[in-house]
Amino acid sequence: MATSTFFRSPILPSIKLIDEANAKTAAANIREIMGPDYTVKDRYQQDEAFLKLMNIEKWMSYAILCLTLILVAFNMIGALWMIVLDKKEDISILRSMGAPRKMIRQIFLSEGILLGMLGMILGFLIAITLYLAQKNMGIVPIPAGFVVDAYPISMRLPDFLVVGITVFAITLLASLPAAFRAARVPAVTETP
To answer: Which SS3 state, helix, strand or coil, does residue 150 take?
Structure first.
């Protein structure tokens, strides 16, 4: 009776790199040393599916929040429209005093943009507060078995820029109807 031997490759311990080391270069060097029989993965490749899921979650959250912003923009359109209706007489007086339509439109456009930018600044402050709370206290934990203990978050300038541009664009579009309506208010006409 012939016996066969079964070779099982040992599981190597994790390798921790110093801060200056490049993980991709180190992984490539280890692959070269170990040969094709071993699979060498860095920390991100080990949890690749989880990280892809988190990236998809980020963009889905962005899309949902954009839809929420669009719904809120309808409230802003209504509020600005009510201001135009309420200030119709004042707008007429301004027009009679020589204010051009462009100036009236600019006043209401600026008011709408100011509302949107104040909301954005408040939102950024809340986001920074939640970021600090998550980083320091880990208010959203992750079950055991993952690389991290708490839901990983990071602040990135490009994310702030994308959100800022999105808020500005939606605010501008929401301010336009009321601004154009205010510009169409006629000047006060004299009655005999």
So the answer is: strand
